[in-house]
Structures are given as structure tokens and as C-alpha cells.
Amino acid sequence: MSSPDAGRRTAIDLDAPPERLAAFRLLVGGFALAYLFIRLPVFLDLRHRPAATFDAVGVLAPLGRPLPDAALLALVAGTIAVGSLFLGGAVFRLSGPAFALGLLVLTTYRSSWGQLLHFENLMVLYVLVVGFSPAADAWSFDARRGARRPPRAGAYGWSLALAATMMVVTYVIAGIAKLRYGGLEWITSDSLRNHVAYSATRLDLLGGTPSPLAGLLVPHGWLFPPMAAATVAIELLAPVALLSLRWRTPWVVAAWTMHLGIWALMLVGFPVPLFGVAFAPLYRLERLDPRAWRRPAARLAG
User: Fold this and answer.
1) Rounded distance, CA 19 to CA 156, Å?
2) CA 251 – CA 230 distance, rounded (Å)
3) Beta-carbon contacts of residue 229 (< 8 Å; ≥ 6 apart)
4) Which residue in 215, 231, 274, 281 is a FRET match for 255, CA 20 to 30 A apart?
5) 92-123 in b/e burial notation, b at 16+ Cβ within 10 A?
């Protein structure tokens, strides 16, 4: 029996079924909603920050002053509300773009107070891609009501290909940035070691708990150049995940291990890749359909 990927050499599949994009909607929408609920105290606390520390960035650059409290509360509540519709694929022609734009504005507003959280960027980009795609043509309330759009050849695959390309580009940019600002010395010198030591010392001085692993490894300087070289190689070689099925999963495992190492050394977590959401558009997500597991489970029970 041939593999479902037979005849396809890359992770890009423009003939992807609507279920694959729908599964991506569920993963991305569920992750983004969970993120909003977990970070809700942070968003609400923006009402009490000094206006002098506000410096609008991105799409909010023309905004000269912080939002009124009522407007911020409405933005937070409205984004969560349309996010729930986005997740369920209900009225998706409206809820999809509304959630994407609401999340973009909300995260940009939080970034306008001085701290840029880079791990938010890919999450927001994924929601933008899904929100403006036919991601509710399957596994959704719209599909059950017969409100799905007329199917278009390649529409589902192109959306997933765009999301996967965005992910790959973010890694390549990170690798280029390291070499651009640090040159080869970022690999051969103590740059990474000093960064880990600084992160641990800063946490200790601020009353936090630094990573125990940092204290064990920092005295051994010879360990860090290989780790730095591996980091840059993983980031610059990200396109192989997109262009070769053979190297897709090895690269994903390497990238996930890199993020796990960053968390272990510096207690800096990047939730989108650590939870696997970043790498989702590279795979056949329709296999997550619970119905596909019913027959094997019934056989096992029998």
C-alpha cells in the first residue's frame, strides 16, 4: 500500500483537503484563545500603566495616546468573543477576519508599552492566514449548516503553504540576524555563554530563580560554541523542512529540541514551537480527525 505522501517530495501540498486547513484552524484558534485567557491579567493591567511609557508601534503607530479603559475592555472582550466563533468555524466570513484583526491590534497595543514578545508574532501571522482563508469549509458550524464556500482548487493548500513559509522565514531571519550583528564570533566566542550567564544573573538579582542547568554549564566554556553553531545551522537550514519530506521531521525535531534547550538554560519559553503549533502546517493534520480513531478503538475494545 503506497504512502499518502507518495509522489510528493516536498511538505507543500497544494491539493490539501479542507479538513487539513480546518484542523489547522482548530489548533491555531485554540492556542490563541488559550493564550488570551492566560495573559488576560496582563492585558487588563495596561489600563494602569503610566501614559508616558506608551509608544505606539506597528499598525497602531498613528495612535498618539493610550486607549480609554472602556475601549481596551471592549477590544479584549470582543476579541475573545469572535475568537470563540473563529474556533468553532461559525459565521467564519466575519469571525475569521474579525478575530485576526482583533488579535493583531490587541497584541500590538501590548507591545506599545515597551516589551516586544517575539513569540507572539508567528501566532498572530497564523491567525491572519487562517482568518482570511476558507478554513471553515470542514469541521465547523458553518459546514454543518451548509454555509461553506464553494470549494476552490488549491485554496486550502495555498493557505497552509503560506503559513509554513512564514514559519521557515522567521527561523532564517533569526539566523541571519545573529550573523549580521555578531558575525562568526557569535559562534566562536563566548557570546552565547555570556547571554546565558546574563540571563541567570538577572533573574537572581531580581529575586527570581535562575535555571540550575545554567549554573552547571556556564563554567564550561567549551560547550557553548558547538551549541551556538547548532543554533545558527538549525535556523538557516529551516527551508529544508519545506522543500524535502525526508528532512522535514528531522529538522522539526532539531528545532523543537533547540527551543527546549533555550527554556532549560534560560527559562525563556517560546510556546508556539514548544507546543508544536509552529510546525503544524508541514503535516497532514486531517489525521487528527477523531472519527479516524473510532474503528481501531472499537476493534481494540472488541
Assistant:
1) 9
2) 12
3) 187
4) 215
5) beebbebbbbbbbbbbbbbbbbeeeeebbebb
Amino acid at 260: L
C-alpha 140/C-alpha 32 separation (Å) is: 17
* C-alpha cell read off for 33: 484563545
Our measurement of the distance from residue 297's CA atom to the centroid of its chain's CA atoms, rounded to an integer in Å, reads 32
Locus of grid cell 492556542 = 31
pLDDT digits (tens, 9 = 90+) for 235-291: 999 999 999 999 999 999 999 999 999 999 998 889 999 999 999 999 999 988 766
Distances (CA, A) of 260 to 132, 185, 267, 272: 32, 24, 9, 12
pTM for the model stands at 0.91
The identity of residue 265, as a single letter, is L
